[in-house]
Amino acid sequence: MVMSFSLVTFASAADLEDIDNHANQEAMEVLYDLDIILGYGDGTFRPDNYITRGEVCAIITRTLIGDDNCVVSYPDRFDDVSNLSKLRKYVDTAYNMGIMQGYDNRWFGLTDNVTYNQMAAIITRALGYSAENMVGEWPNNVNSVALDIGLFENVAGYGQAPATRGDVAQMIFNAFDCYMVKSVGYGIFMPTDDMFIEEIGFDYNKSVMIEEDRATFGHEVMTYTKDKKTVTTDFVITDMISADLYDVDRVNKGYEMTVKYGKTKEVLEIRDKDEMEYY
User: Structure pTM?
Assistant: First the structure.
């Protein structure tokens, strides 16, 4: 007997049965709750399954412009993308946006597994990095940029290996706090004032709680809002000092601080201790 499962959205990531304690749990929960990556009809996310190029088209276009803005374009461009395919509108949209390309003029590779090299290329294009202005040859040029801006943080695979659903979620999540760039010459990309998460239309707030008498332990709370939908995450930080994520020398134990959501993790505000709410 052949069993098939459709991708569906549950009430929240808490309904998913197979992501607890996974290395990419935070990324999967956020992207799932934001309706960017869907789960399966049996209540699973299947984080270690490979993901196809067609599925990635759906994910990246939902991320960039939302599902309702993805449309089919004519005439037919790829022989392996049927008019009847549910992924057709995502493939056409991703192609027209210049985010994904086919293998040649008539073949897209709809059901091929996407590789880590390809995911790095897709996300860097979305951030404004143009392949023609990157120094070096494919895929080293793309991977060099991806490594530099942190796309591979907490990602298990690399190179030509097929990417997993969990790692794809992680790479997109990592891109949230990357700055958009503009090319100003060969090998020169200037950051803009906007981060990727702002570019795709999200309002956000990030705060960190340092628990009293335990400077290396706290909570990181992130709130995303778009189209009247709000998603809040709360993850325990167990090793803040060695990870060098926060300037703890400027924060006394027991204080709450608000942190700019960027690579510098710049402390913007330290609240009075009397206002501290302990977890």
Answer: 0.75
